[in-house]
Q: What sequence folds into this?
């Protein structure tokens, strides 16, 4: 039980990679926090995890709203008395080529994927610094390392997340807080599963392994970075992409 007694907060954990993360953390003994934007989605997942986790707690908050993010972190701290792990997973896409992208498309993605990470990271960091321990894991993307056609907004956020990760690692290390990022490749989430077969085959063809990743592959990376097995790892970007960028 690598996370026994730990309190793990995962934003965007009502589905996809985030839900896989709380599942994996619960299996390793963590007390988990389900964080989503809609109360009904949060409570549905909380009910699902009753009896499957040491303890489960839910918060509904928009990560892009600093007041909501801070209030959610305060609720978690008040309930558990601490926060050991934060996975900044919540994110959205709104794809368009540069010449066709609207201001709303750009602003909305920046608000959730970049400012949201900042809001939650800042709030959790204050708590972790006070307790002199903690782990922050930010979710970037291979797009945040190499860019991608039609994703000016998304790529900008995922590049930015890497910059924040390295900066926070330098600032928070002496306060006992480790900060790392994970950069997933093509992952077979519910959304991706709905894509046409020819698109899925194209995505598989980009990987030397000829595979798409599963959400559990990313959850396992989170688990490693959150655990004491990674106690000497900070400021790094762990690519989990099947070699797609080689």
A:
């Amino acid at each position: 039980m690598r996370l026994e007694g730990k309190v793990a907060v995962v934003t965007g954990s009502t589905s996809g990679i985030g839900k896989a993360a709380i599942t994996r953390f619960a299996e390793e003994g963590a007390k988990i926090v389900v964080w989503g934007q809609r109360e009904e989605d949060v409570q549905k997942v909380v009910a699902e995890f009753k009896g499957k986790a040491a303890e489960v707690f839910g918060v509904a908050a928009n990560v892009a709203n600093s007041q909501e993010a801070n209030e959610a972190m305060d609720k978690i701290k008040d309930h558990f008395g601490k926060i050991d792990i934060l996975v900044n997973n919540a994110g959205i896409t709104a794809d368009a080529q540069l010449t066709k992208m609207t201001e709303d498309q750009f602003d909305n993605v920046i608000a959730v994927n970049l400012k949201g990470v900042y809001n939650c990271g800042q709030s959790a960091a204050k708590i972790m610094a006070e307790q002199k321990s903690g782990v922050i894991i930010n979710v970037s993307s291979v797009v945040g390392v190499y860019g991608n056609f039609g994703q000016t907004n998304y790529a900008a956020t995922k590049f930015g997340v890497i910059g924040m990760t390295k900066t926070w690692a330098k600032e928070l290390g002496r306060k006992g807080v480790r900060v790392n990022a994970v950069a997933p490749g093509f992952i077979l989430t519910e959304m991706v599963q709905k894509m046409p077969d020819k698109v899925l085959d194209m995505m598989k063809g980009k990987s030397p392994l000829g595979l798409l990743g599963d959400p559990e592959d990313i959850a396992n990376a989170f688990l490693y970075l959150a655990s004491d097995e990674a106690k000497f790892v900070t400021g790094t970007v762990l690519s989990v992409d099947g070699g797609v960028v080689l």
Q: What stands out?
A: Residues 114 and 157 are 5 Å apart (CA to CA). The chain has one domain: 7-238. The radius of gyration is 17 Å. The first strand starts at residue 7 and ends at 11.
